[in-house]
Write a structure and sequence with these properties.
By secondary structure, the protein is an alpha+beta fold. The chain is 29% helix and 26% strand. The radius of gyration is 16 Å and the shape is globular. The N terminus is likely disordered.
Length: 140
Amino acid sequence: MLLKVSLLLSLGLLAACTSPPTVTQDTNQLPLCGPFPNCVNSESGTEGQAIEPIRGDNSQWQQLNQWLVKQESWEVIVSYPSLVHAVAKTPTLGFKDDVLFRYDSDQQLIHVRSSSRIGYSDMGANRKRIEQVRLLLEMP
C-alpha cells in the first residue's frame, strides 16, 4: 500500500514538471505561465499569477545583475543587455525555480517571471522571492 501511495505521489509530481523557459536576446515579452499556480508573471499573469513589475532605471537594473551573480543559491543561465534568466534553488530541498527579469528602459520597469519547475503549487514561494528582490531594489 505504501509503495502505491509513493508511486502515485511521484507520478503526480512528474505530471506537474515544466521545462525551463526558452528566451533569446530578442525576447520582448516574458513567456506565459503554465496552468499551475506555481508561477508569477508581470507581463501576462492573470488572477493569482499576476504580479506588478519592479520600477527601476538602468542603475537598478545594473544593481540587480550584480546582486544575482553574488548569490550562492542563484545561478545566472543567460544574461543579455535587457534580459536575465537565473535559476534559484530553494534552501531546504534544493528545488530549482526559473526566474526571468526583462528590463524595459522606455517604461523604466523590470518585468519579472518566477516559476517552479516541479510541483503543482509553490505555496507562494515565487511571489515571495520577487517581493524580496523588489525590496532590495527599492532600498536607498
